[in-house]
From TrEMBL:
GO molecular function: ATP binding; metal ion binding; NAD binding; NAD+ kinase activity
Key word Kinase present: yes
Family note: Belongs to the NAD kinase family.
Predominant place of localization: cytoplasm
Active site: 56 (proton acceptor)
Annotated EC: 2.7.1.23
An example Gene Ontology biological process: NAD+ metabolic process
Protein name, per record: NAD kinase
């Protein structure tokens, strides 16, 4: 007997009007195929798939909710770009049909983790996209000493430093001149934000490396942004970034590739002449 699948819907409340008709279709479709759909459940225990409907921000919040459970996530784009949430709402029924039939692939995405020698209260140290060390709004440049596996990489005098996964290489890092990195390439990128020196450029390292950071600021404090979730930290805090032990599993239709998404979302290689 085929196992009854359970889906959890996590959506963008500000787009509830646009989401409602597609959510109703999904609910009716899954019920007709003996699957269950829970709307914004309090817990994700015993959930087989998470259905994220919104934009990339909604997708990241869903990833935050999933944590280390490695529940496969289906990202439906109700926003603008939708690089992470790359399923068009008109394709939702096709995607659900293929998932129920088992005709899909799971793409594993690297997660990175921040370790800090301070008490930051309740916080989620995991990032799918990036961890950024940034100056505060009105502060001068900060100095960041970076070591990779114990070896000194360099001293960054800049507005900040981004440590990006391959998934995050098309986000904040890209807007600061970082390279696009193919998922599952086993690498991370360190991208400076507005560096004071022209000799500081993005550098790609192995994702098994440990990155140690020390920060100095004239304001004696700086910001750490983990997938956009920011907190203030004081000078003297020892920071390290490593690859997490879990991954994020993204549901893809068979035949769907990263390069297709690049061409469709970033107009990669398109010549408008």
């Amino acid at each position: 007997m085929q196992q009854q699948l359970t889906f959890a819907f996590l959506g963008n409340e500000y787009r509830s009007g646009a989401i409602a008709p597609y959510l109703e279709q999904a609910t009716n479709f899954l019920a007709a195929h003996h699957a269950r759909l829970f709307i914004e459940p309090a817990t994700l225990e015993e959930v087989d798939f998470v259905l994220s409907m919104g934009g990339d921000g909604t997708f990241l919040r869903a990833v935050n909710r999933i944590g280390a459970r490695e529940i496969p996530i289906i990202g439906v784009n109700m926003g603008r770009l939708g690089f992470l949430a790359d399923v068009h709402p008109e394709q939702l029924m096709v995607m659900l049909s293929e998932v129920l039939a088992g005709h899909y692939t799971l793409e594993n995405h690297t997660v990175i983790q921040l370790h800090a020698t301070c008490s930051a209260g309740e916080w989620n140290p995991f990032a799918l996209n990036d961890i950024a060390i940034l100056k505060r709004d009105t502060a001068a440049m900060i100095r960041i000493s970076a070591r990779v596996d114990g070896a000194l990489l360099g001293e960054y005098q800049a507005d900040g430093l981004i440590v990006a996964t391959p998934t995050g290489s098309t986000a904040y890092s890209l807007s600061n001149g970082g390279p696009i990195i193919v998922p599952q390439s086993g690498s991370l990128c360190l991208t400076p934000v507005a560096p004071h020196s022209l000799n500081l450029r993005p550098i790609v390292i192995n994702d098994s490396s440990k990155i140690d950071l020390e920060v100095e600021s004239r304001s004696h404090s700086f910001l750490v942004a983990i997938d956009g979730r920011s907190m203030k930290m004081a000078d003297g805090v020892q920071l390290s970034i490593t690859k997490a032990q879990h991954v994020v599993k993204v549901v893809k239709l068979q035949g769907q590739s990263f390069f297709t998404t690049l061409r469709e979302k970033l107009m990669w290689g398109v010549d408008q002449r």
